[in-house]
Amino acid sequence: MNQTSLWTVLTIIGMALVTVITRSFFFLSSKPWTLPGWAQRGLHYAPIAALAAVIVPEIVMTHGHLINTWKDARL
After folding, report:
1. d(CA 27, CA 54)
2. I need a surface site. Which of 19, 29, 57, 73 has the fewest CB within 10 A?
3. In whole angstroms, what is the distance from residue 23 CA to residue 31 CA?
4. What's the alpha-carbon Rg for the chain, to the nearest Å?
């Protein structure tokens, strides 16, 4: 195994470990963990924000450029 392959394998293993540790943090915690009130209020708007982030560019952009005329049927 050459040096590049070794570093690639080590990087993949390291990234997998970081992913497992960060995702299992909530399961390994000994006490119940809750979000602060401000974070819970912010997460209330997350679905509509995600939906808007997907839909709005499709409406106001065409081929990667902003629509600059009111004659476009999508507007």
Report:
1. 31
2. 73
3. 16
4. 22
What's at 14, amino acid-wise? G
- State the sign of the Cα–Cα–Cα–Cα dihedral 6, 9, 12, 17: negative
Are 3 and 9 spatial neighbours (Cβ–Cβ below 8 Å)? no
Residue given tokens 């819970």 in the structure block = 40
Digitized pLDDT (tens) for each residue of the chain, 75 residues in all: 688 899 999 999 999 999 998 888 877 777 787 889 999 999 999 999 999 999 888 787 777 677 766 666 555
Residue 74: which residues within 8 A CB-CB, separation 6 or more? 59, 60, 67
Find where tokens 């997460």 sit: 43
Q: Which two tokens stand for residue 1?
A: 């195994």
